[in-house]
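[job 4417] fold queue: 2 targets
>>> target A
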Amino acid sequence: MKCPFCGFLEDKVVDSRESKEAESIRRRRECLKCGKRFTTYERIDEIPYMVVKKDGRREKFDRQKVLNGLLRACEKRPVPISKLEQIVNEAESFVIESPERERKTSEVGELIMSRLRRYDKVAYVRFASVYLDFKDVQEFMSELKDLVKTKEPETKPAKAAPKESRSTQ
């Protein structure tokens, strides 16, 4: 295993654990050159699950590609990596649960956007701007207006106006 910090090829395994679902093995490793620790995951390589792109091409589902997109969208945002991993896990499960062993990227993208929208609206807009491939500023503004509309009902119950009127009586 290549060290992600210095590129050295030799390491030692410090700890190994099965995941909760026993679908993968988590290994904690230590580089024998720089001494830094990193984590690897081992999974069984089965028949690949596919995603169907907008143009009809089929491509193997790639967890890392999804995570990289989320990391870019969440750059400098307060979204914990554990939430991003959870979104990637949900997207992967969604593809795996398909009876045809494939899903449309539009379905996967919608799932990812709905989850990201819960955690961070700015990250959602960043992801949506790439994923939805807005043709012009009007499409982008339309999406922002929809986001603001859905945000308003969430904030209205939090207003203290009714409580203030009761407390002043």
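>>> target B
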Amino acid sequence: MGQMKGHGAKFERKKRLAIAALLTHRSVEDAAGAVDLNHSTLLKWLKVPAFLKEYRAARREVVNQSVARLQQTMGAAGTVMLKLMTDPNVSAAVKLRAAECVFDRTIKGIELEDIEERVSELERAAQAAAQRP
């Protein structure tokens, strides 16, 4: 990592531990303490592009895994919304909120499909333009 000092495998291990701690603790200070690192050292590491890149990649992976877990429960969430929307014993405010959720999610889904289609078309056009002499 360019500007960072360390001793080979020990440093790489400390770096991995620091990234894991950043992902699981509430603050940089708590993360640093968890891996026996000086708070200011970890703050400096977070300014090093290579470390920051690895940290962001790890954060993205955590989010991706969480989203995948949530996606597995989408059927149940949809069922709950529909039950709330149609249950005669549920207040009008709850029914309205459930209906709004159904509308919002449906519209967002269509918007995403439209955006994906447009991006694909742009990528095809760019690829075709790049292949022209």
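[job 4417] complete. Note on B: Helices lie at 8-24, 28-34, 39-45, 49-71, 74-86, 92-131.
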